[in-house]
Batch of 3 targets.
Target 1
Amino acid sequence: MSMSPSTTERDGGPAVPDDGAQPLLGFGEVRTCLIQNLAGLSPSASVALMQLTPGSPVSKVDRPTRRVVSPEQVTGVDCRLHVAREGRGRAIGTVLSHAVVTNGRILQGTAHVALTSATAKERREWRHYLRQPGVIEVLGSPNPHNVMDGYLTDVSPARGLDLASISDRIIGEVQQSNRLDHTTALRTGTAVVRWAATLAPQPPQAKPTVGITKSDVPNFHVIRLNGSPEDLPLLIRFCEEFALHEWLLTTVQDVIVPRAETDIARDRDPLDSLLFALNELAPLWMPPTHLGPDMKALWEAMESRTHYSRLFERQTARIRDLRDQVKIRPPRRY
């Protein structure tokens, strides 16, 4: 896949194709990890870190959690699509990507694109594709469901459209910044959420829908969504919020609690990591239901299947128990 990055101001989603054709599919990938900095970043430091291109503005909100988003970067792609079952297709256009810092602690890199059928039978000049950032035109006539399944089941290295490399690249760009001290307060992994949405005009009262699958690959989740083309910015944000909360739950449940239990059993002190979880991570559990009725409907549908909030509350309670256990533990005798 050929790629050439540039930058544009963030506008909330892909552009409308020149010919007015509505996108048929939306694809994306979100990576979530801890920022490589010992202390949490201040609001001004977060903004400075997200200024990936000098002179391009960042977007930020302070409540209910502080969230700073970089300008969108544009990457040109020209590659074949990995199509499941049967059919062939070629993808030409541009992918949008940006970074997100939450509360000065958590970093996300996300790449996303809308796919539409090409109106021309041959590849056009690049200026045509650059006029519609975040839109890929598909040459050929593969079945959209086969294109979606092919993307969601693709492996690394990618055999088709490689959004993984684009999201990973923006994470690397941020983590290598000389504004960071490249030391982490906690050893954790990177979680990946790959998503695909079927986009089609919907009845007036219809709501977007979501289905989530956990892959056999550790820290990897697949999301399938349905909505209208106008829902795409909402779906992108939902996947970022899901990825953030999935990372929080996984980090607390699979990293902090087991390590603390092992440390206590071996007479080591895990208090620092327990306090980090309670003071730095637990306050970030803020489901995005305040963002509107459609986001609330998506989140509640996800919660009805996964019970993530209940699981997180249970793990947070376990961390408090472990903290209290450490505090009242008698001093070790030598």
Target 2
Amino acid sequence: MKHCGFMVFVSVLLLLGFLPEQQLQHLELHTYEHFSYRWLSAHFIHLGLQHAVMNVAGAIVVWLLCVSIVPTGLLLVMLLLLPVGVSLGLVMTDSGMSYRGFSGAIEGFLVVGIIWHWWLSRRFSLLLGALVAGKLIIEQMPSFDNTYLLDSIGGLVAVDAHLYGVGGGLFLALVYLVLAYCNVPCFCAPWRMPWARSRHRS
């Protein structure tokens, strides 16, 4: 069931890549706007088909990381809340930019997958976490060139969206883990799952 839902999702992302530019402009996020449907819709459209394919590739990687260990309910909540959280961050900083793409949300999914992998393989979790942290640091440096994909996707790399995606993923993971620790029904603690390894194993 999970795999069928994911296939539908990536198919929608690719199909939306064929929308005419005039329609896409009505769905993209403008950071000077107050809350609207664009806070969600902007994350499922792209600057073009190549941009959509790149984000679908990223979504597949994250899916392989998360599918077997992250609860389905949490994945669905993230699918709805991570885009809104990224939009909130972009609007609060009001850079005057417009935004399209799923990359910010992908970063949030990636962080949650890394956290859940802590109870499966700590070495893998630490290594991947260090790589993501290093990537974020490099992207936030003044010398970072956010135009390096301009010729490929037709737009700038939205590094702040990546940062807010990671922040949203950390927040949702923390809330879930606290509720699981408190034994709230429907919240499954990852450290109690059959796939979780012993404290002394990596």
Target 3
Amino acid sequence: MTKGRSKNRSNKIIPFPGLKERLLQIGTEKLENKEVEEAIRLLKQAKDIKPVDDQIQIAYVMALFEGKYYEEAKAECKDLLHRGVDDYLQVVELYLMILIQLNEYEEVASTIHALLEEADLSMEQRTHFFHLLQLSEKVWKNRQPDTMVKIDSLLLHQQDVVEQTMQIAQLKGQNLEPYIEQLESMLKQPDGHPWVKTLILLLLKEHHYKKEMTVTKFSKTKRVIPVELPEFTEQDWLQPIRIGIEQLYEHENPTFCQELLAMLERHGFIMFPFSLSPTKPAIWIAAYVWLGNQLYGIELSIETITEQFHINESELKHAISFLQQLEEWIEPTNSPSN
């Protein structure tokens, strides 16, 4: 009896002042450092101390997602959504990512339908979710028993980007060896869709693929080792642009700031593993500001932007043109000119 009580006492968390905050801080740091299991343990302890805390629960869901505990992450996300949270759209995005990993495309579609009908979304957000809805509905339709797409040698020659996306998703958790030659050929294709190439690289990275491969995008070619690639959100070139946007608008206009950062993240995905060129951050910050204002129906002259950011007019026009092309390529059904 004494031994049993001692064991229970040793496992119990004594919530001394500041423990919850400390567990959240360290757990988040562990997650950022890819120490996923330790992050899950610490964040679960924080959640046990205060079960109803949005910040802790969101961090816990992200850790579960990184650890590929998708069913548990889904349950936690549903609890957050049913309870109602301030960062509602962030949680919805996380929930959709989890559903996609679970191949629950019907639920993805129904969730987005409800979101488009009920939520107060900006034009940019509405466009983003509508594109995701189109993709999910097509994937769900093709995954029905009578039309299930099988992974076969037609993958390389499949011209429908949505079909390619679905087949790549089916490779998760499978032995990639039979498909490596096809996947490598797709990465090299000059006319291949950059969206699909990013998905392939992320798949290979997830499978810890260690051999060097050639990637061609936007008339550029480079050799990469998938397992050594950063997360697409952590590419070096993104950070100075992200910081520049935040310095301009994080306090003055937080909604506009988030719109620009969301656009930047989308472009980071489609560009991966390449960077914007020229590499001068001011040019791209200026281009995002101009393009963001355009989306809100605000006309800013090129001269005004070049004076504000002290940049060359021709470089700005080139940057704006390229970002507009990236926005077109974001939609998987579009065919880029590489």
